[in-house]
Structure formats: structure tokens, C-alpha cells
Amino acid sequence: MRTTNLYAPTLRETPAEAEVRSHQLMLRAGMIRKAAGGLYSYLPLAWRTIKKIEAIIREEMDAAGGQEISMPILQPAEIWQESGRWPVYGAEMVRVTDRHGRQFCLGPTHEEMVTTLVRDEVRSYKQLPLMLYQIQNKYRDEIRPRFGLMRGREFIMKDLYSFDKDEEGMNESYKKMYDAYTNIYNRMGLNFRPVEADNGAIGGGHSHEFTVLAEAGESSIAYCDTCDYAASDEKAELKVIKAAEEEILPLEKKNTPDCSTIEMVAEYLGLPMEKCIKAVAFQTDTDEVVLCFVRGDHEVNDVKVINLVEGALELRMAEDDAIRAVGGCPGFMSPIDIKEGTKIIVDHTVMEMYNACAGANEKDFHYINVNPKRDFKDVVVADIRMVQEGDCCPHCNGHMKMTRGIEAGQVFTLGTKYSEALHATFLDENGREKPMMMGCYGIGVGRTMAAAIEQNNDENGIIWPKAIAPFEVVVVPVNGKNAQQMELAEKVYKELKDAGVDALLDDRKDRAGVKFKDADLIGYPIRITVGPKTVEEDVLELKVRRTGETVTVSVGEAAGKTVEMLTDL
What we know:
Helix content: 25-40%
Number of helices: 16
Shape: globular
Low-confidence stretches: none
Number of domains: 3
CATH class of the largest domain: Alpha Beta
Structural class: alpha+beta
Oligomer: single chain
CATH superfamily of the largest domain: Bira Bifunctional Protein, Domain 2
Strand content: 25-35%
């Protein structure tokens, strides 16, 4: 490929709309262009990287036993109604009606489609296990599309679905995909971490997010400084913190005028935050009130809470009138004297406190000497708090550290959630009918590309990992108008191509500075400069984009040295 034939309209200025580094650089490097909010065209440079990412994914999926298929993007409402997700999936689902009045959606995911496909074809345990995957566009009407390819309305996803005869087989398929994902991200040269995660709207059981570590990431990750435990902040397990035992004192009500926050009451009573009990009130989508209590220096994890409330799909902060209706007082709440039957969830650590402070469910009053094991009745005790830096690891004697990352892939065990709802059954060895055990496994292809840029850039532009760079090498003649330089550049370019190197020849007549800036902006792993010294002394320069290392070689040695350097990258 020659730059004069390459459609890559680079920009010198950063568009104001671009908030994160990957979005800025993809726009400036002529890789993507916005069509509408959350909708982008992929230009040739981006598409070359996308195809390289897809090739790595395909190789690893096939090696793990996956078979590639293609399912319709336009999905009939009936299969979603059968699974029960049509009325509850939410506003993110893009719903359409055809000319006959029949309802469809643009697929945000394909659990229903693949399950109905398999149920109509698989009858016996002899046809299992089965792993089917596709790479295609998905559609989700995000309320606020942002960050370029990180959160869009249309995006490319690889989704694989596994079908097994039993839990052992499902877990084996999960392990195969976990290992395949590890291979994929290693091959792409990315710094990543598999972290335990919540299954969210997909449902099911066990899950890991494959998170590319980057400061711009939306995911907050907790990891142990001693063992290999890591989890999203939504999922992280926490040890119970037991307070030092104290003599249990009688409950006492104290006037706390205008102290409606945990910070205010702690200061007013002269107590440390860890001696206070914080209250957070939610309402579910069915208006059920859920009262949650954590230690004053901790935060409530609403994902853990929603997983404890049967039938709840979402939570919102409770309205004051709803709190009063169950016997609470906004700003002054505790589980004491709350209306019978109210859902009350208390964090494990709260139950281990002695002589603490909590709301008295009366304006301007708090209790002191609250002892939860004595004073709290009819409560659910569970882990409902957010992980914090320095928390004890739940699996060893280490401590938790926090970092940020971009969720680029996720693996799930689904069990029989979809096979039971959609009647995807098979006959086992004894002729008994059983639901298939399922798993699903997704990779955001465009999101992975963006994550790679977030992790690999500097003030000059992108620094591509070799495996997914749009081109591995760019050959830059300093003076495109000089016939001798161009002839030698053509020679080097041809020898690189013959050696199997994915090379680009920048044959533009522009100034050398312009071409060098574009090479750094786009991020080719190696730049070969052909200049006056090449003509006069038979030497040219190879420069590594990531390190700035330069090597001088003869024209005849250029291809061999380049292959050697690429091997080491």
C-alpha cells in the first residue's frame, strides 16, 4: 500500500467532541469519522486493525472448538417474549415494527436467537458439547453514547455460546474460553487482567471480565497485592471486619439537630466514622423500599444489593414519602422500629460493631450505644459494601489495591437460565429429557481497539502493539521528489513485502516533517527513513516507535533487520 492511495485524512487539531485519548487519536489519525451520536464509520487504517483483531479471535475460537456462524441482526420479538426479556430489557433495546405490524429488535445480544436455533436441531447428548460463535454488529440505544468506540449505539462484537449436557461440561467450556481469551489478549500485546465480575442483565452464574488496564477505563478493579485475586469493584468479595469487643451499654437517644448526614452526626457527637452506621434507602422498579446499612466509613454497593432483592431489575434512591411510609425518617434512619415486612439489608461488618451510633427514625435524633446483634430484628445480613484500597484480601493475608481498566471481553456461565425458558432440551444417556447447560462469551472488537490505544500512546500519538497495528512498518523517503531516494525506498518496500512484512510506502511529496508527524500519530511500530545518506553512503535508519531506539543499516540489510526487530517487539 502507498500513502498516496490510502484514505487516511489526518487532523492537526483535536476535535472538541473527543473526551478520551483513544477517541481523540482515532479521529486525528484518520481512523474513524462520526455519523451520529454513538455511530462511527471505520476508515481503512481502523478497519485493518479491526480485521487483525478479528483474525486473532477467530484463530483462538477455532482452536478451542468454536464453530463460526452468522445469525440475523434483526430478531423477532417472539423469542424475547418467550424468554421473558422483551418487556424488561429496557430502553437500550432498539425495537422496530415491520410493514405487517410485527415487532422486531436490532440484536443487542443473541442468547435467545442461538438458543432457539440449537433447540430445533440438537436432540441428543451425542451432539454435545457445542460451541457456536459469530462476529457481527450489535445495537444498544445508549442513553449517553460517549468516549468514541467505548460506548456506542452500534458496535462490533464476537459472541460465542456453549451448550453442554451437564455442569461439568459447562465448566470445561468456560475454562476453554477463559484460556482462549487469555491467549487473545496476550497475542495482541495488551496489559490486561481477568477479574471476577457481576453477570448483570445477561444473568447466570460465574463470570470474569477481561479488563485492559488504562487510566481512562470506566471499570474500577480491585486486586490483591499478594495473591492473584482480582475483581470488579461491583463484585469484589470482602472480609468481615470485627470491632474490638466492648462492654455492651444500654441504648440511648441523643438530640442531633440538623445532623442529617453521617459526617455531620459523627462530628457533632465526637465519634469516628467507623463507630457510626450509615443508611441508604432504595426503591425497586416495583416500588418496594429497601433499606441498607453499612459502616460510616464504607459505601453501599448497589449491584450487590440488587442481587439480593428477588425480582428487582433496577434500583433508584427512595423518595422521602416512601421512607416515611415504612417508619423511617430521611437523614435519621436505622433498622430499629421499622415497619414489619420491610426489606432491610445490613452489611456483615455492621453486625460486628459495638456501641455504635445510628438514626432514631425521628428528625434530629440518633441512638448511641447501638449493638446490632441485640437491637436489629428481622434483617438480612450480607456483604453489601464497596471495596476500598487497603481492605484485607478475602483469600489471603494481602491487601486490596485499586486500579482502572476497560472491559474488553467477558465470559459467563449461564446454566439453564435460557435453555429452560426457551425449552432447549436433549435426551441424556438414559433417555431422560434435560435442559442444556449454557455459557456465553463476548469480546467488544472496536472497544478492544480503543482500549489498546488508551493503553499505548504518548504525546505524539498512538503506539500500536505489533500484532494489531494497521501496518507494521512505514518506509519514509525524506524527499519524495528525489528520484534516487524514491528508487531506494521502492526497493526497500518491495523487499519488506517479499519478506512477509506488512509495510506501507509513504510516497507523498510532502515535507519530511509532515510525514514523520503522521507516522508518529498513526503509530506504526517501525519507521524506515530513506534520506540523502542512503543515496550517498548506502545507509538508512530504522526507528522503533515505542522506545525511540534507532538502528542504522545498509539498504541490503534493511528487510532482514526489520524482520528481526519486529520479532523482538
